[in-house]
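Components:
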Amino acid sequence: MKAKNLLLTALLLGLTLALSVFLACGQPGKAEGEQAPANKIVIYMQMGGTAGDPSTLARTNGAKDAAEKYGVTLIEQYSGWQPEKMIAQFKEALAAKPDGIVIMGHPGEAAFEALVDEAESMGIIVTSGNNPLPKLEAKYQYLGFGYAGAELYAGGYLTGQAMVRAGLKSGDKALVYGLFSQEGRSKSPQGMFDALKDAGLSVEKLDISPEVDAEASLCVPILTAYLEAHPDIKAIGTQHGNVTSNMMAVLQAAGKKPGDIKVGGIDLSPATIEGIEKGYISASFDQVLYLQGFFPVFQVVMTKLYKIPGLHINTGVGTVTPENIKELKPLIEKGIR
Amino acid sequence: MNNLKKENVFLKQLGNAKAVPVMLVLFLQFVCFLIFAPKVFSGYRIYMSFFQTVPPQLVLALGLTLVITAGEIDLSFASVVAFSGFVFSYVFRATGLAFPALFCALASGALVGVINGVLIARLRVPSIMATLASNFFWGGLTVLLCGGLNWSIKEIRNTFLHTLFVGRIGGIFPAQALWGVGLAVLLWFILNRHRFGESILFIGDNTDVARVMGINVENTKIILFTVNGIIASFAAVLLTLEITNFYTTQGQGFLLPVMAAVFIGGTSISGGEGTIVGTFFGMYIIGSLEAGVVSTGIGGYWVRLTTGLVMAASVIINVNIKSRGKKIIDTIKDSVFFKAFKKE
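Structure:
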């Protein structure tokens, strides 16, 4: 029996090894003649959600492209957008003493301050993305602390304005379905809420639960129920990428036709593209995630090699609408836009 | 011998009543929703929406019920939803053929299940550890293989497979709800009327006794985890067909709701006792809760708090009905009539 178990263990280990070798061989290698610098810059980078989700994919691809271009060893860290995990990941990165650490600003300045102080004192370049940390940025800008990301509040506001332009008027009722309970991620839906309010709409907030945050298809019955309970609703806004992906399914389940409800969202996944093409989604905030991945890596390299101070780059300046979706579609499908 | 058989049948009938409390809780929940949100719950759309979104979770919960009844746990199902969804989408995109994609997806679930089973039954790795590792491994492999990309498979809407599994009967009723019922009926028969189900119950109760009874515990466990892998991959197919998209994180948010449904349904956490009917209604309780609370007009930060309160109330009512039910059953068993019936 023991020998049989040993044999099985060996077999499983062998299978795992073979699979690993097979997968490793399948990875794209460097082009011939292309050589990494002798002392490669090592960067730990927080990517945000989970590998491949619509709110993260283009950021990862941008960071990878920059890493390849500048010969950087990139260590990707995924937190599922959990602020406490982002803090833990910063500590892990500190322990490895890399050349640079790219952080997400979601846990806030108070949570990050001591850790950033420690990193800077160790000579590690720290820069931020997706959610700004203005005090830390001002404090360490001369040491390369920059920001690459949308101004989240402004981005939400911009999307709210695009929804109004799509055909809303003062007095209409609207819902903003967002992560209001998370300080860092509430700025964007708050911006959208304020834009709709400023346009004279009657707006209600609904918080996204952790279950929906993890598996957005669970939002379908919740929003269907909301639409049934509020038949006079004219608009739904969200600043959650995966919820935006499910908005077409929500409206279909509620028996709504394209254009019946003006929908504003965020990010661009294949399902969101289809929703925009078919007219179910009026506008999706484009925060150009690719640049949010590319620029922080570029920043660390520039600071490391040429002592360039932190750059503040606003990547979120537009929305994708049924009018401009056609030309962006091929790039979105490749995970670049 | 004949009397003993009669008694067993009677007790079994009483035992089947263990799903009654959870049915009553679901009924009470919907009565409350009807009172507080009559506009929503007197219409058909909200129910169609539940029938559209609950079935993938229900399918997962039904499979998990068998595993928990056997005294084991399977935490890998969330990643099977992603992995099998990937295999399904990949094969469909590559070939344009839906049925081979279905077959490959189910085979991928079986592969995960059989590896889980071997780790647990042959190598004696505790199921919680083996399937947790499996959850990370298959989830990670999925991201690696698809390069982190989400895929649209909207062309599948034109296939017979789409109509068969997630089409709208009469243009309204989601077919996946019937598949959920069908699977529940099948698994009920397996658990309560088939030798394999009997083996699961014995193993969950006491593995040593199961061995003495002549049950091959190891083989049964391997088959059980393989079946659960296939069931999880079926859930993946239903989900992927419904949303006509594959995304790498699909299924990750199902872990807690699915487990909650199994336990609210009345399946024993320590094994040896499981109820398919209870899980069925438990999943609809969990799956409709948040939407019901939202429809009553509660908004903002109050939704989660209220959802928690309703869930706690459901569990308390469930436990109370159960314990009272047990007392009634005990009273019947101790009654003069029942003793006379036994003697006869």
